[in-house]
Write a structure and sequence with these properties.
Length: 258
Amino acid sequence: MHTPLCRHAVGEPEEYARRAVEIGLAEIGFSDHSPMRQDNFDNWRMNFSQLDEYVAKVRAAQKKFPQLTIRLALEVDYIPGHEDWIRELAGIHPWDYFIGSVHYVSDSWAIDDPQKLSEWKHRDSLEVWRIYFERLTLAAESKLFEIIGHADLPKKFGHRPQGNYAPFYEKFLDAAKKSGCAIELNTAGLRKDCKEIYPSRQILEAAFRKGVPITFGSDAHAPQEVGMNFAEAVELARHVGYTEACQFSNRRRSMVKF
């Protein structure tokens, strides 16, 4: 879940927490887009100077809603060469988990950025998916993250690979299993052009076969999106064969039945 500090979400953490209580959730986690070493790296994340403010907002929500478990986390972009920065971030506050995500397949192109949508016209979709999963595999291998986020993000605007991309995600899932990181069932995909949970059933079935654990996330950017479509996500997970999901505290994993 996100906050206005990322510049593309609305509603304060206390509003998200209130919504979670209303719909009967027992635990939520905030994982706003982390700052980069260079401020204004792009226009959809907080600056480093705002990190303490972010933590304070989440702590305030924790105090106001003691009946709700609220975790403090970050969604951290994985870009090759930025690993030391991620390690620095990890030591600044007592985070509960890091979600590692890949948005950039080059230094200048974030594949899910609506302002860069025209870039797809100049790219081969299969090659984009290859690079994307190559970076996602590196993210899993880095052991810097507890969770890998929206594992087939390139489909957001409906761009599906023309050709067999199974070897790309199979390699990624092998890395996730070896590193012990989970993947999320992210319901935000249902609210995008692709109209499908991240990741697809095809990828989720492969993850189950390999023993890769899962988490559930709404990727909420507004209070009314908290927990949205979780029933569909749970149904998908159960149909594939999952009966447990991960929870995290102080970057340690526990498993819960669902």
